[in-house]
Amino acid sequence: MKCFVIAMEKEARVLLDEMQVGKDYRTGGMHVALGKLFGRETAVVVCGVGKVNAARGTQYAIDCLGATGIINLGVAGGLHGGVEVGGIYAVFSAVQYDFDLVQINGGQVGALDGFAENYLPLTLTDGFEPRRVGTGDRFNDDYEDFLLLTEVLDADIRDMEVGAIAQVCVLSNVECRAFKIISDIAGSGSTTEQYVKNLEKCLETLKNNLKKIVGAVEL
Fold it and tell me: Domain limits at 54?
């Protein structure tokens, strides 16, 4: 069974409204639902925002639910004009831009301990435009973060979960896919104001693409 790991209830609600839920419970601060989505067995773990929560939710899905694949869905911020508000993109690699062992290990910003490369691979999904994501535990308009993400790491999108989800999947040898819907674009005004303004548009995009996603990931 493949399992969705999603940060926020408002994002997960798009799936849950379409699911025939057979079991629904809370554990360790997470909301877990098991059932059928468009006739296919699946589970949803609503893990909470941030890297630690994302890693916990992913490991729970693998160890406790027996997930053979993880699918992350959520809204995220665009870093340049190559993505558009309300657009949905498939993630093919992710880096944790707030992880830095360069002074100890050398190498690149975002390279995890024991890893040679800083970007972690995800399974690319046909039918969606591919993009690279920088993940960090920060929601801000910091210009230094923007320069790091764009000029050093060459990321297209920033979020707060998928890099940690990818790390758990790589270490657990489990397939990982992710889809990000853009709520804001760097340099187009306040990130917070854009997010609030565009959230419903993003959730509508997710709703309109949900069947396509389910078919593409072969639940």
Answer: 2-217
pTM across the whole model: 0.96
Taking alpha carbons only, the member of 37, 64, 42, 58 closest to residue 164 is 58
42 φ, ψ to 5°?
A: -160, 175
For position 201, what pLDDT does the model report? 96
44, 50, 109, 188 from 72: Cα distances, Å: 10, 13, 24, 26
Nearest residue to 66 (alpha-carbon basis) of 163, 174, 165: 174
List the CATH number of the domain containing 198.
3.40.50.1580
Q: Distance of CA 80 to CAs 85, 94, 136, 195, Å?
A: 11, 17, 18, 16
Query: How many structural domains is the chain composed of?
Result: 1
